[in-house]
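Figure S7 source data.
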Amino acid sequence: MDIEFKSIDLGEALALCVKFRRDTHKISYGNLATYNEEEVVNWFHRNKAENDQGFKHIFVNGKIAGQLEFRSPIKEDEVTFGYIYLIYLAGMFRNKGVGKLAQEYMFDQFKVDGCSEARLRYIPGNVVAEPFYLYTGWEKSGEVGPRGQLLVRKLA
Ligand SMILES: CC(C)(COP(=O)(O)OP(=O)(O)OC[C@H]1O[C@@H](n2cnc3c(N)ncnc32)[C@H](O)[C@@H]1OP(=O)(O)O)[C@@H](O)C(=O)NCCC(=O)NCCS
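Tokens for the predicted coenzyme A complex:
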């Protein structure tokens, strides 16, 4: 399997970015009641301008397969960590090991940036993502809050 992570040209790929985010929202919440497209589009433009290295499309054997949004390093209370905002694969690319490789790609970047751990939040109703995270070594931290459940993954 040939996997590539490529910088996103929003001029060309904005509609695709929106489609992937919209699908993730639906999987996470079960519906689109709280989905706000204007906020999503603003977030993409901000991410592109301020954090281009953490905004990538995933290609598998030359085909667009998904999207990553992440940032590092972040320093808080003496801990340096990388944060994953989004890991998304289109349906036909799931359960083939691509998610695991995409995580490793981000973890490598976090380690280069001196991070000791990775963090993310997910909505506990997301039955696609939860088993994947727990299987790949993430641990729950604290209670579920308005933005979901915080997970932490120590980086060796
Ligand atoms: C969550 C997601 C990124 C996982 O990626 P993936 O490519 O499907 O997962 P992988 O195939 O790399 O799985 C890695 C390992 O986790 C295991 N795993 C994945 N999903 C699992 C499940 N539902 N139950 C049990 N194990 C699971 C796999 O068996 C695999 O184990 P192996 O390495 O021993 O073979 C992907 O399914 C996805 O994009 N989902 C939709 C978007 C989404 O919900 N994103 C998260 C928002 S918080």
